[in-house]
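Objective 1.3, modelling of assemblies. Example input:
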Amino acid sequence: MSTTSPTTHEPGHRGTPPLVSSRSPVPEITAKVLLGFCAAVSLITTVGIVIVLFEEAITLFAIPGVSVVEFFTDTAWRPFTGPESEQFRLGVLPLLNSTLLITAIALLVAIPLGLASAIYLSEYARPGVRRTVKPILELLAGMPTIVLGYFALTLVTPVLRDLFGPERVPIFNAFSAGVVVGVLLVPTIASISEDAMSAVPRDLRNGGYGLGASKRHVALRIVFPAALSGIVSACLLAFGQAVGETMIVSVAAGNLPPADIPTANPFQQVQTMTAYIVQAIGGEAPRGSVVYQSLFAVGALLFVLTFTVNYIAMRLARRFREAY
Amino acid sequence: MAVLSSPLSTVRARNLQGSAGRTAAERAVQAVLLAAIVLTIGVLVVLVLDFSIDGIPGLSWEFLTSYPSRFAESTGVRNGITGSISLMLLTALFTFPIGVGAAIYLQEFASKNRFNQILEANITNLASVPSVIYGLLGLSLFVNFLGFGRSLIAGALTLTLLVLPVVIVAAREALRSVPQEIRAGSLALGATPVQTALRQTFPAALPGTLTGTILALSQAIGETAPILVVGAVLTRRDDTLPWNWFESFSALPVQIFDFVKRPQQEFQVEVASAAIVVLMALLLLMNAVAIVIRYRYARKL
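Predicted structure (tokens):
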């Protein structure tokens, strides 16, 4: 602390506005407005995202040969040929299918691992273990996703190809990317669920023990159900994170929208919504073209999806905080 | 108690089966739970070993100081390093004042009205918007609408919006932990609320704020998707300098993406993993600085 409170009292100024005000370059109200503006930047960002995504998406549907109905119902995604071509199809369902496939695989990995970790950390681990494990999980959460993409492509995929045979598992596949996205989600689920379980009052546990329940019954049948809204909230946040995950899927899952949908085959090349955005941006499509505008239509869908899920998660989280 | 008695009576009945079986089941559950943590940490260890073993042999002074090349032996990450450092400095320049200002407003001045509640909920929600969406915002707003082009400044401003929620949350946390006595003392001596916030409360919260900002910046320079969308170039044979706001730029994660996407094995594995080691070293350095700041100032206060 370099500055200390103004201590030099000039006599004769008693009752007047504070002494230091003469040294203050900005009036009180201006300063508050400036600070308030800084806080408003975040609100402007949200409004900006909504305006940009929807305005540019609407521009897409104004292009001749592009229709909103087809965008949501057509089962093929071939935007690069241009609307004049016979080949041109602009249905987002294959991208959505790919995204949901990757998300499902990721959650199948992340929910068991994350919840088991959370229960162990909250109910079993000694404080020392908890203090060591939590930062390590944070380290995983803070890993740049491009590094995880490298890991998926150069280590997980070759292992999968050895296990299941290279004729079954293509180099780019949904399984490898999904598993690694799942690993990335473990810290999200573990940390939020652990917070929810730690917030369950001691009395509930003691009540269980008093009635003769064993430790595992207290953990699994008393603490876990009591923390359920927080746990569901954690899983929803993980779902949103998986849907928005970009680099792992861009590197490891490929860039080919599945031809036959709906599909749940994990051993095929797919293209998620986020991967399409990365692929299409590489071509430096000019403003006003179908490809450029379609980035924002896909982005808008992605935003609506993650925003809805996160909103529900936030409401649930608030409820579990109010419960005790 | 009446609520609890019904599920627990069944629990109890099951538990009468004898203590040997009970201990075994107890151990089994504990082992399964522990295995989940061990497995997760194991994956992290394998991941770090994987890129370290592949990447460290490829590190050399030439690799760090060369521009990209078509040949794996002579390629380097010089423009990635200069680009990432420039992005980080500019992002810090924009994020720190805005983030601190927002935190001071929300923590010290905001009353509990509807508007401020919306502001707070909005910050939580922004933190979970996918980063690629920020890229689209930057592309439309900074690159095209404001006419900055695919430039360094467009990239830095996009990253600023991306990490702003993280900085605001960290700065608020730091302000919240400043003892109320400091504010009371300052106000009692006649300082105005704004003077108290800026000259007493904020300096006391500075270490925590700095730590949070550095961690947010390390998240920013690890990001690939948003700056890729804003238009970072893959191969640039020139240094990116922090004051060349309107020039094109590259960054380490974008270079790694480029390397990984190439078909040749030398690029995909050896060069990419060497670049990953450089990126991780940079992140480690920033985290170390954050820890040092936290530790040094924690003792002083």
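Chain B has two domains: 17-58, 61-300.
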